[in-house]
Amino acid sequence: MNPSLSIGDRIESIRQTLREGVRLVAVSKFHSSEAIVEAYEAGHRLFGESRVQELVAKQEELSGICLDLNWHFIGPLQTNKVKYIAPFVQMIESVDSLRLLEEINKQALKCQRRIPVLLEVHIAEEDSKSGFAPDELHDVIEHIYRHHEEYEGVRLSGLMAMASYTEDRGQIEREFELVAQLFEQIKHGGSLVEPEAFCELSMGMSGDYDLAMAHGATLVRIGSAIFGDRDNKEL
Ligand SMILES: *Cc1c(COP(=O)(O)O)cnc(C)c1O
To answer: Is 48 left (phi over 0), alpha (psi -120 to 50) or beta?
Structure first.
């Protein structure tokens, strides 16, 4: 992060590095609503948060001020908390179990919504990271396909992944490439009711989004390069 630039300038300089068709999710977790307003006033509209309580508080604070601000939920999501974000969230990128998908579907239908979702793929070395293993992913897609009339509350919009926490850029690239291959297999594999809706590949963060874009990312999730370091580095 360049500390001499404003939030708006940092977003602008990142924007200039984005490939065509790639959208920037500004990850504002642990940062203040003021920082979000600053980004919003600089013209940015798409933000990512990873904790329900924090997202709901920010939504309440900002919904009257930042009228067309869009939220993507990107963190671990407990089923009992889906109901708090279902009324307004624009996409849930971190669906890591069928049970969670079912709950999102149920809560979306209650709000008469259809929520775009991404299935999270586990590619990193760390066990701490969540998501479907690649072979599990095919089973889940198949399951949804066979029971699609029960999933009217969600729109299967693509995949999300986080690479390993490593300095080894070659390894990160191999992981992104694996996700890109899975994405293509699924998109063209005949097990999607709406293959045209399956169009998002969310991968890449501050340190590796260049590699993610080289492997076909359509959404990059960038936090610290925009907002600076977070006090709590856990998430
Ligand atoms: C925090 C977070 C990001 C952003 O990470 P930075 O390194 O700060 O850019 C991206 N994706 C997820 C899922 C996150 O939790």
So the answer is: beta
Q: Which atom of ligand 1 is nearest to the CA of 94?
A: 13
Cα separation, 156 vs 199, in Å, equals 9
Mutating to test ligand 1, I would choose from 27, 52, 128 the residue with most ligand atoms within 8 A of its C-beta, which is: 27
Cα 178 to Cα 125, 140, 171, 189, distances in angstroms: 13, 18, 11, 16
Mean pLDDT by 10 residues, the chain (235 residues): 88 97 97 97 98 98 96 98 98 98 98 98 83 95 97 98 95 97 97 97 97 98 93 53
User: How many angstroms is it from 191 CA to the middle of ligand 1?
Assistant: 30
Report whether 165 contacts 124 (CB < 8 A). Answer: yes
- Closest by CA to 226, choosing from 200, 211, 198, 207, is 207
**For the whole prediction, is pTM greater than 0.90?**
yes
Distance CA 1, CA 130 (A): 27
Nearest CA to ligand 1 atom 7: 206
Distance CA 140, CA 132 (A): 9
